[in-house]
Amino acid sequence: MARSAGAISRAGAAVGAALGLLTLGTLGVVLARGGTASLGPADWAAVRFTVMQAAVSAVLSVGLAVPVARALARRQFPGRRLLISLMGAPFLLPVIVAILGLLAVFGRAGVLNDGLAALGLPPVSIYGLHGVVLAHVFFNLPLAVRMILSGWQGIPAERFRLAAALGFGPADIFRHLERPMLRAVLPGALVAVFLICLTSFAVALTLGGGPRATTVELAIYQALRFEFDLGRAAALAAVQFALCAVVVLVAGQIALPAGFGPGLDRRVERWDASSRGLRALDAGVIALVAAFLLVPLALVVLRGLPGLGALPDGLWAAATQSVIVALISTALCLAATLVLALAIVQGRGAGLLEAAAMLPLAASSLVLGTGLFLIVHPLLSPARLALPVTALVNAALALPFALRLILPSLRSIEAAHGRLADALGLVGMARLRWLVLPRLRPVLGFAAGVVAALSMGDLGVIALFAGEGGTTLPLLIQRLMGAYRMEAAASAALVLVGLSFGLFWLFDRGGRDAAA
Amino acid sequence: MLRLEGVVLAQGAFRLTAEWSVAAGERVAVIGPSGAGKSTLLLAVAGFLTPVQGRILWDGVDLAGLAPGERPVSMLFQDQNLFPHLTLAQNLGLGLSPRLRLFPADQARIEGALTRVGLAGLGSRRPADLSGGQQSRAALARALLRARPILLLDEPFAALGPALKAEMIALVDQIAGETGALVLMVTHDPSDARRFARQTVFVAEGCAAPPADTNALFSKPPLALSDYLGR
User: Fold this and answer.
1) pTM, whole model, 2 decimals?
2) I want to staple A326 with a disulfide (CB 3.0 to 4.6 A). Which of A299, A370, A456, B76 is the partner?
């Protein structure tokens, strides 16, 4: 037993060290290279814009999520369960697809401007700060709704019963039950959304740009790809890492609410909100948010369907590469996560390993990419390594999410069956094969689905490394959009969505199927 | 012979001492108020809890440093004695080989053990398909296969009705007789102790008393025991 415990500790330490090397090591390279470069006024503008748009996006996403979560928490209606599940989907939806959908509604030739033109009104533009914020709200409003809804569901049903018995009205319920809950949940939700928006690249690449709407991530990309100013790219990457590290440290002090997981569709009886006005309010809020989320996606489907018969050149090559990259990064990520989780549960050096697992949260795709670019570039052409680097970076970036899914399950497996396994001398590989893997299988399947979908949709480091060949599907779509081939982009987006959710579904079902 | 030599067990502020020995093949009931440390005593023998002082010896060999699976011990817990995702045959097979590398002869032994406890032909079922009594029988069949010289029972039959419990205790008696095992059985019920165990360890007030003759102990109980028994 002692021998295999040592093997797990060593493997865990190796994974932790690899994560440290990948994040802090690349940061070291970045600092060595960028430490001397000085940032110009445009770069500082990018830093200010990044922080400002992230703050606005976080406040709007979370602020708008409160009435939506409240409406979902206190209403029963057909399709409620489906709508709540749907709120989990944007997390897995490729960013580029959502942007395509938003362009179909709010873009130059979108539905909104068609309507305005018909009324003789001037068109609105989606590009710039408000476009970036709009896209971020599209992604993060559902996530915030799920976080806040889980807070609402955390209020025991008995409290509402007691409140009803005491004759509380909606204002009293808010004051005594809902406000304390919100005070506990909102800071975590704000920080989580702020961090996500801080590292936003694909949104800024497509909807931002120019001197007034460039994020640090985008500035890194431009410095590397267009100006080939390695020193400046490195300096920007260092600033970006510092920003994220500060936010991750702040987040570490705040309990982050759970954004996904089962049990969010539980029913709680409410007696306080039956007035006609409140009912109309909730119905309106739910209808608006459903339309905001569904109309853009429906338009992608509508515009993409006709082109499915004649898909653009190179689509299947890019799709194949995307799937291969996703499968490799899923395998890497799950193997590393499992080893880390086993070592953490075993207890030796657990704190250090958990900290190592959080490192990727502070390192964004482009920061890791810049570091790896600086390492690779003198040796061989980065384009040749585009796909392996993408697989590696995606695996690292998804690891914190995978660990948050797997670790609690592993702990409960050990709590329920660990003693029996010890008593029977079930150690090492035998324990893994006959106890851990079979019991963990449903969670592993779900985690694999999440990681695969995240990797399929990623448009970050690949944009930094890719040459003419070696593209992934999201990058191909972005290039089609850049060439204003919107129909072709929509068709390719449909294929991407199908593949992403297909992979998620396959892994998730594969995990659940054999579970006895 | 199982020997507890100046053993002190500690969990937080809780302490339990034991200083006694008991012969191989003996039947011992462990009785006492809840929270007195009956399970703690068994967990220490099984290797899940390291004594802060003293030694636990089997046939003169100190068990310290041996992992639970390496000790001359089989243990039945209050619950979770079978892995729910494995078949009965696999659950029993783990008693022969933790890696489940089983040869045809092993399969025959598994089937034989299942037959011995009255579960013939149920090897391909999973625990969820069985009743509570059948699950207990399967766990006992595994103990039969492991044939370790010490069998620890931490109230594995507590959830069964009185008739079924008596049946299980009789089965334990037979199986321990076949493997020659020393049995330490935690129980709340004096009639279990009388029926099954020639000797009884009374655990109370931070001390696991040396094994005493069961009948003598219950006919002339010390004060703490008569308080516990309520008479």
Assistant:
1) 0.83
2) A456
Instruction: Determine the pLDDT at residue A268.
Output: 66
- B75: three-class secondary structure by DSSP: strand
- Cβ–Cβ gap B81/A416 under 8 Å: no
Residue B64 has pLDDT above 80, yes or no: yes
Would the CB atoms of A435 and B83 count as touching at under 8 Å? yes
Residue B184 forms beta bridges with which residues? B28, B152
Beta pairing partners, B61: B58
B84 touches chain A (CB under 8 A): yes
Mean residue pLDDT across chain A: 87
Q: What is the DSSP track for A278-291?
A: HHHHHHHHHHHHHH
CA distance B180 to B151: 10
| Cα of A456 vs its chain's centroid, Å | 12
Q: Could you say which residues of chain A have pLDDT below 50?
A: 1-3, 262, 515-516
What's the whole-number mean pLDDT along residues B155-179?
90
Say whether residue A427 is in contact with chain B using an 8 A CB cutoff. Answer: yes
CA neighbor of A196 nearest in space, from A55, A388, A84, A89:
A55
Separation in Å, CA of A336 to nearest CA in chain B: 24
Residue A166 touches chain B, beta carbons under 8 Å:
no
Provide the CA A468 distance to its chain's centre, in angstroms. 27
Chain B: residue nearest A421 by CA?
Answer: B69
Q: Are A442 and A512 in contact (CB under 8 A)?
A: yes
Helices (H), chain B: 38-46, 88-96, 104-116, 132-146, 162-179, 190-196, 214-219, 223-229
Distance (Å, rounded) from C-alpha A207 to C-alpha A214? 10
CA dihedral A24, A30, A36, A37 (to 10 degrees): -140
Whether residue B84 and residue A423 make contact (CB cut-off 8 A), yes or no, is no
Q: Any CB–CB contact under 8 A between A510 and chain B? A: no
Asked whether this complex has an ipTM greater than 0.90, the answer is no
Strands B212-213 and B199-204: antiparallel
